Amino acid sequence: MLLRNSIAAVRHFSAVAKVANTGATKDSGGGRDTLGRRLLSLVYAKRSAVITIGKWKEEGGTARKYELNRIVRELRKLRRYKHAIEICEWMTLQEDIKLLPGDYAVHLDLIAKVRGMNSAEKFFEDLPEEMRDRTTCSALLHNYVQNKLSAKAEALVEKMKECGFMKNPLPYNHMLSLYMSNGQLDKIPAVIGEMKNHTSPDVVTYNLWLAFCALQNNIESAERVFLELKKAKINPDWVTFSTLTNLYIKSSLTEKAASTLKEMEKMASRKNRVAYSSLLSLHTNIGDKAGVQRVWKKLKLCFPKMNDAEYTCMISSLVKLKEIEEAEKLYTEWESVSGTHDPRVSNILLAAYVNKYQMNMAETFCSRMVQNGVTPCYSTWELLIWGYLKQKQTGKVLEYFKKAVGSVKKWNPDQILIAEVFNRLSEEGNVEEAEELVVFLRNAGHASTEIYNSLLRTYAEAGTMPVMVAERMKKDNVELNKETRSLMKRISKICAGEVSNMCS
């Protein structure tokens, strides 16, 4: 919650700066008072945008459509969809505001996000006929794609074809994205072929096409696509070169990767900030330490403050390049400037210590995290669990296993991790701690046949008879399967043999 609020605060202040001059302005003792400021200051969802606009108008302010649209855009960037949708709904009730299909498209998208697809579909169906045009259809299609609703997306595309709404690349790009995310790669060539018959691909199309080639690890096809892009006189963007570079790296074509990476670097700018993080990762993947440092220096020259994602990327790059001391220095810098205390940044260094079997360093670092206001998350404890599993310290494993489960509201059991913990206990024949783990899992609501079977394997390894396992399983509504019965027979034979040996 603290992390979410911190990020929201950063986004809030940057957005307020953007809309400081939005709306009619009035003199107030604290500086310029605007409708934009008032609406952006409604951080809590319970507060009403409609009441705020009403009060503004009562005080003599004006609420123009273009100003409100600008505020809606900022609210969407902040993911404050409730207030954005309230403004859209308020505009639909104003007789002096004439709404266009584009306005309804934004409204539809917000409804899908806030109230779900059923509500969005009803909104679309209730629109006046003249407002159900290419723009609103594309908005509905976009949301079908976002929700991976293939059948509905395909049906809508057919209707759009009938209405002549498929004369630009956007809907085709939506379908390419859908088929890529759903793994329906066999449908992609047909979409591209159909697009070429009705319109011209744009740079987004070519980037998706290149990504398709990359998924198939087909360098020849990717290079043909890139050549076609250049012949079409379409300017490639940083994503184009990033995709090609990744493909070349995967195929160990380092020289070609370095060449496309150089082109990509030319395109990194203040407008394409995210490109810098991609550049850092790609330079790291070809082992180019100098390139990583150069990109980081450029990034710091362009922007006064780095965000968590950029620190994460750079620290990760330094760790991969085995520059641990540099990574530690950069982490210290992040500690001094971070307002979020995001444990995901800390976990990069923690993982580095765990992977090097430096568990004392890992423990010390974890304590440092807490002292400096970073709250360990599930992944933090999971890293320590795996580290101690490798070192066969089952006491520590169970300690951090409990902390991991306790760190989340709802735990989705990691079956691989549970199995690995039980395997370690079974190898040791450690029935006491195996029983402790079973009790803990039962109390967490995750008793299962496999968990009880794991317990029985531990008893079998220890050559000890368990107490009333069948009865306990019945009480927990857990079924005995074939393996359960087989393990019980095996334990009985072992124990009977030991008794016989003692008597003879």
From TrEMBL:
Protein family (similarity comment): Belongs to the PPR family. P subfamily.
First and last residues of every PPR repeat: 133-167, 202-236
Gene3D superfamilies: Tetratricopeptide repeat domain
Pfam families: PPR, PPR_2
Classification via InterPro entries: PPR_rpt, TPR-like_helical_dom_sf
A single Gene Ontology CC term: mitochondrion
The species this protein was found in: Rubus argutus (Southern blackberry)
Protein name stated in the entry: Pentatricopeptide repeat-containing protein
Recorded GO MF terms: mRNA binding
Keyword field: Repeat
Keyword Glycosyltransferase in record: no
